[in-house]
Amino acid sequence: MSPDDRPPRKRARVDDGEHGDQDGGPAQNEPAPALRDKDVWFPDGNIVVIAKEKVAFRVHQGILSLRSETFRDLFSLPKADAAGATDSETFDGCPAFRVEDAPEDIRRLFLVICCGKNYYYDQDTLVPVPFDVLASLIRMADKYLIDDVLDEAISRLGKYYTTDLAAWQDPDGRARYVTTVPEDALTVVQLAWVTGTPSLAPTAYLTCVALSTRCWGQPESVFRYPLAGLSSQDMAFVLEGKGRLTQAAATRALTLLSALPSLRCTTRDACTAVREEPLAALREDGRLPVALSDEDAFRPIAERMWPEPHWGAFCESCRQALSRTDAREMQSLWDDLPSQFRIGIDRNSWPRDDSESAGQSNLGPSLALALVTQCTVTPFQSSDSTLFYGIRASPHPVEHDLALAPALVVPAHDSEAQSDNAFVVRRPCDLRVMEPRWVLQSHQDSTPLK
Questions:
Q1: Which residue ranges of the chain lie beneath pLDDT 70?
Q2: For the chain, what is the HEC assignment?
Q3: Where is this region: Disordered (predicted)?
Q4: For the chain, which residues make up each domain, given as ranges?
Q5: What is the pLDDT of residues 24-48, one digit of tens each?
Q6: Contact, 316 vs 340, CB < 8 A?
Q7: Pick the CATH number of 1-117 from 3.30.160, 3.40.1350, 3.40.50, 3.30.710
């Protein structure tokens, strides 16, 4: 979903609630039926803010007016308009204003702007902030238009719900900034759209994906669906994204198959033989020997596909090639993560990896499918170090078409591929396998490889 479709940051209305006790409360101009807050009560304060649950905070009007445009406007209104009363309500001799905010939310905000509390550092030591505190500060700072508090809280939350793949793969590192549990991701989704901060949404959705298959028992065997707190639209985006991420993990497995043997392989026959184990499983029953799911989308899988002793049987060059391919494909998917959940987001909000390797055309699944159908695939390099793949169709019947990644093939000129069924992947086009030979459906550059 585009950020334009989400509620933008805007000036919030303060809901002041109703005055007094509906069941015959105190007369006007008498102290409100509220309790003094133990943490935020200045004896020399000149106004009292009364939150829900009748908790009163005595603070200085000048400080609130200086920090918050919303409070400044509230205090400038005639009291009858601001608090819904004919005459001014007082508490301990101070004008009293009622707001419809939870006392813990208002308390945390006032501790920052009125008391100078720093939730983020203890002197110079980084402190992990409880998620509930950050959520309170974000809600209150957004409502009362206190930009510095809002920006600092969102920045800290963004350290956990990050835009950086390496940071995401380091949960212990992220936990240095925020103390949270996966279920908090539902609230993060809401905060992202309420505050107009879409950069928080992709990893919040990603966390919701992991939650989507969980349920836990309640008394009398009543089960609660963990995504019940999301809107129906957000829930749909999470479930759609879950399917896409599962597919991406499977596609990466095919890409890893195509990376072997590497160009600098020192034991080509041995590495090709080791590669065959998952290929044999695919040919036999259409399944990889390792189960993959959405949770594997951003986890390395190469060593799981070839566990020991097979991983150690590869030469060093092939192991490095597998690790590089694994990392590159994860980064490519991460760069595209917002679109997996239909989130429209600008480049500045979700940085992309512009390195040359990250931008390479992905022919891996195509080549792996050729391997599965027992075509001959031979990687080699031209004199300008460009990587090509020689592909020769299997002499055995191929009963289905292969929907391969875009590629242009030209006749191969290596000594092992002289038949009409041999081609080299070179440029983008539409290629499919039609038995008994490869058929070019379109091409723009048919210059033979030299």
A1: 1-32, 79-87, 214-224, 354-450
A2: CCHHHCCCCCCCCCCCCCCCCCCCCCCCCCCCCCEEEEEEECCCCCEEEEEHHHEEEEECHHHHHHHCHHHHHHHHCCHHHHHCCCCCCEECCEEEEECCCCHHHHHHHHHHHCCCCCCCEECCEECCEEHHHHHHHHHHHHHCCCHHHHHHHHHHHHHHCCCCHHHHCCHHHHCCCEECCHHHHHHHHHHHHHCCCHHHHHHHHHHHHHHCCCCEEEHHHEEECCCCCCCHHHHHHHHHHHHHHHHHHHHHHHHHHHCCCCCCCCCHHHHHHHHHHHHHHHHHHCCCCCCCCHHHCCCCCHHHHCCCCHHHHCCHHHHHHHHHHHHHHHHHHHHCHHHHCCCCCCCCCCCCCCCCCCCCCCCHHHHHHHHHCCCEEEEEECCCCCEEEEEECCCCCCCCCCECCCCCEEECCCCCCCCCCEEEECCCCCEEEECCEEEECCCCCCCCCC
A3: 1-36
A4: 1-117, 119-230, 244-340, 364-440
A5: 444 444 544 789 999 999 999 999 9
A6: no
A7: 3.30.710
Phi, psi (deg, nearest 5) at residue 377:
-120, 120
Closest CA to 329 of 242, 252, 407, 262: 252
pLDDT tens digits along 395-419: 443 333 333 333 333 333 333 333 3
Amino acid code (one letter) for 260: L
In the numeric block, which tokens belong to residue 362? Answer: 């992905």
- Pairing mode of beta strands 55-59, 35-41: parallel
